[in-house]
Write a structure and sequence with these properties.
Length: about 375
């Protein structure tokens, strides 16, 4: 904030609210529209506030990760109270429900900004979580403040991970790889995509993570970039493509692996190896100070040299954290520069309609002299006999 000349930031989108406060507001994550904000004054982050709907106060009381202590509520929601003595959790909820009702979300935010002495300040507002008309309404309530878009600023902040964030990302990567193994353990001729998906997600849930991405496709269906598991049955000689990942303590995984039932043919072997080499060559060059666009070029050119001369991609990866697509963006046009502490998904997908889809995607941490892989397996083609 100091570097950008910003006096305060306001998080509004689900990812930024969770990142800046530790607060995971259920309805904000499962549908568009619910308004939850976090006000962060640059001069005193301890004075940060969560502005929350009354309907979601129970989660503030019940979540260990919430580190912002100041809560401002708005809106009507009825919760009755029995005559019984309240335990610690119920007492905390009762305390939160007794806070003054600030009316609606924008009114509550404006009151918080004024109370913090920021009414004439330069404030970066995360525009992604606001509803149509909210920006204008807030501007009318704060005529002396300078409001600027803040989503990209917060996205840049999220790009470099803390030790705790990396630990969570490592754990969700481990869970995702174990879930791929659980799915492949039941892969037989006649097994359906949906059966593999159930095995995958069951393993994810058994490790206290939650399903998010579950693209699992066989044969020609594997060439669908966003394939969703169906009743299609596995046949000998077919590819199985996984592009999958769960969520653990708010943090995401995004990993891709390819297997095949039976002996692979020459094309499948060559193409799968080329895609793996593309990822490995990209990983070899990743270190602080390297341009994301150079990583893109390295990965694409490596795949072309190995076996797929026509290989073309819009990107070869991205950052990951509370959001599935954090910075940096590994594209040809990216201006991002790799920094120590970033966590990246580096990938080389290939989709050929009428044939198959293949994909390798690894998660890695950028360290001072290179990368630390979060993978326990390599991206080579797995042959299921």
């Amino acid at each position: 904030m100091k570097a950008e000349g910003v006096d305060a930031m306001v998080a509004t989108s689900a990812e930024n609210v969770t990142y800046t406060s530790g607060y995971w507001a259920l309805s904000q994550w499962i549908r568009r529209g619910p308004q939850i904000y976090v006000l962060l004054p640059a001069a005193d982050l301890a004075a940060s506030e969560i502005i929350a709907s009354t309907t979601l106060l129970d989660q503030i009381a019940d979540q260990d990760d919430v580190w912002v202590e100041n809560i401002r509520r708005y809106g009507y929601f009825q919760v009755d109270r029995s005559g019984a003595r309240l335990d610690e959790l119920d007492s905390r909820q009762a305390e939160l429900y007794s806070l003054p009702d600030q009316g609606d979300a924008i009114e509550a935010l404006a009151v918080a900004i004024n109370a913090a002495g920021l009414s004439r300040s330069r404030i970066a507002i995360d525009e992604m979580g606001l509803l149509p008309g909210h920006w204008e309404k807030l501007r009318d309530k704060l005529p002396d403040a300078k409001l600027i878009p803040g989503f990209q600023l917060l996205r840049r902040v999220r790009a470099v991970k803390t030790v705790e964030e990396i630990a969570r990302l490592r754990r969700v990567a481990e869970i995702t790889e174990a879930s791929i193994d659980a799915a492949l353990a039941i892969a037989r001729e006649g097994t359906t995509e949906s059966e593999l998906a159930r095995a995958f997600h069951a393993c994810t849930v058994s490790h206290d993570a939650f399903p998010v991405i579950g693209c699992i496709g066989f044969g020609t269906r594997a060439a669908m970039p966003n394939v969703q598991p169906s009743s299609a049955r596995l046949k000998s000689g077919e590819v199985i493509r996984f592009d999958v990942g769960g969520r653990y303590k708010h943090y995401r995984a995004d990993i891709a692996r390819v297997a095949m039932l039976g002996e692979p043919d020459v094309k499948t072997t060559a193409y799968a190896h080329a895609l793996q080499v593309g990822v490995l060559k990209a990983l070899e060059m990743i270190k602080p100070g390297v341009k994301a666009s150079a990583v893109f070029e390295t990965a694409v050119e490596a795949v072309r040299r190995e076996a797929i001369p026509h290989y073309s991609r819009s990107h070869v990866g991205h950052g990951i954290g509370v959001d599935g697509y954090d910075l940096p963006e590994l594209t040809a046009a990216s201006r991002d520069v790799i920094e120590e502490g970033m966590v990246l998904c580096v990938e080389t997908p290939y989709y050929e309609l009428g044939w198959a889809g293949l994909q390798v995607e690894d998660m890695v941490v950028v360290r001072r002299d290179g990368i630390e892989s979060l993978m326990t397996s390599d991206g080579g083609l797995r042959v299921m006999r």
